[in-house]
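Running co-folding for NDP.
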Amino acid sequence: MNSRRDFLQKITASAFALPLLSSFKTEDHPYKPQPYEGPALRVAIMGLGSYGTRVAEAMQTCKYARVTGVISGTPSKIKDWQSRYTIPDKNCYNYENFDRIKSNPDIDAVYVITPNALHHDHVIRVAKAGKHVICEKPMAVNAREAQEMIDACKQANVKLLIGYRMHFEPKTLEVIRMRKNGEFGKILFFQGLSGFRIGDPTQWRLNRQLAGGGAMMDIGIYSINGSRYMVGEDPTWVTAQEIKTDPQKFKEGVDETIQFQLGFPSGAVASCLSTYSMSNLDRFFLDGEKGYAEMQPSTGYGPIKGRTHQGELTQPHITHQTIQMDEMAGIILQGKQPVVPVDGEEGLKDMKIIDAIYQAVQSGRKVDLKL
Ligand code: NDP
């Protein structure tokens, strides 16, 4: 461990890493911590909250990615993370001074894991500082913001990736492989159920200013994104209906429950539910002319469970954030192409669908989509 830390402090530039990563291969997994002293993606985590903590822990068994810095508004958390992950003072920032990361050669990328409505400003500032950006879902609170983030990253010539961890999950990838291989036949229907009962009414997830919406932004997005990678197409229309049982807790602009339907160019349809007031809702069902896949849980931290008309899905469980960060290191440092994209354009499509769902709820009409 110590030699890994010494190594980290010795590396000075990501340019150095590029030629040496040529041995990066997916088949290097599964994820047992393996000795590896080669170059890696050096990541600063921004927002040391519950998910940031999970990501950093999962990164301890990454082969190609390391936590080398932090950006936080809470000095006590910074101290704790510094001792836990051996992070030097010079790699610690707060929200006022993190633009200075520009001149820090120990950091290649920043992983933005702050409340949704802050992603836009945080991502654009990281891009302007010349660092690659990984941004949590939802990438923004609407499509306009998402587009501005993409533009800023393009202009700064840095990569923008969205934290779509399911795009690297082995059982999910097996269903996608089977669908591409025609094993389900023509796809006809997808059902996505995404929800949980939310607690503390004072948390940022129920504050429109910070969340940008309600359950749809937070959990419904899994059914939106899932419908696209399971069906293998982008929808061309949406209809949606909102149900609100507790207007005290779920104020104006914070959706509690929305049912929505998506139509795809092939004629396939999706029927989905997004909610903050029902538990045990984490299920995908894909139906085709020749077969089906069902996954439950489908997007939780796992293990994901599922079966198809051919039997149980038996691919191994791998900590989602570990494989995600190793694969993202390959994308950023080596230009590796993921099976399902995780770039800003992918995030933008989901934001356009969310905008259309809110519009359909307001108008009660079908909304056409151009993704
Ligand atoms: P938390 O509230 O647990 O953490 C958010 C952190 O952001 C805080 O701890 C704080 O860290 C920082 N922060 C900065 N400004 C604010 C502010 N004004 N209010 C509150 N926090 C602030 O949230 P999560 O970690 O659960 O969620 C963060 C992001 O990650 C969200 O976008 C969410 O959608 C996404 N997420 C993704 C998951 C996935 O599976 N892909 C799962 C869970 C969340 P500090 O004190 O260090 O500044």
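Result summary
Residues 1-29 have pLDDT under 50 and may be disordered.
The pocket of NDP is lined by residues 47-52, 72-74, 77, 113-116, 118, 136-137, 163, 165, 204, 210, 218 (CB under 6 Å).
Job closed.
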